[in-house]
Design goal:
With about 120 residues, the protein is of the alpha+beta class. It is built from 4 helices and 6 strands.
Length: about 120
């Protein structure tokens, strides 16, 4: 819960209450919540990244790459993935037909050079 200072009640109130407030003297009145602002700025909601339809942005599918040569660690994959999963031990993964140490997901596909340089296996 995120609190805002309420002009009317002279107390701290949940920002969801401010969202519906009509007080013209309050800078928080009618403003989107922090979650709504972050969603508008970053497409960061879990529903969006899981490929569910968003009427304003459409559907976006994440691209998953498995780490078959080494566990996820700095330098084992390029850039900053949106999601990362490390297995406790090298585990057989049916989707790629071989064992992997974990996976990383990106919003855009990596280049062939990146896949080769980091020895990643793209999910089919």
């Amino acid at each position: 819960m995120i609190l805002n200072a309420c002009v009317r009640g002279k107390t701290m109130v949940d920002e969801k209450i401010c969202r519906n407030c009509k007080d013209k003297n309050c800078r928080h009145a009618g403003q989107p919540t922090t979650k709504e602002r972050l969603d508008m700025a970053t497409y960061g909601t879990q529903e969006y990244w899981n490929g569910e339809k968003d009427e304003h942005r459409g559907v976006r599918k994440m691209t998953r790459y498995y780490l078959t040569q080494r566990p996820p660690s700095p330098g084992a994959f390029p850039g900053k993935p949106i999601k990362l999963k490390a297995y406790d031990a090298k585990t057989y993964v049916e989707e790629i037909g071989r064992s992997a140490w974990g996976w990383v997901e990106y919003s855009e596909p990596l280049t062939e050079k990146q896949v080769k340089d980091y020895e990643l296996t793209k999910e089919n």
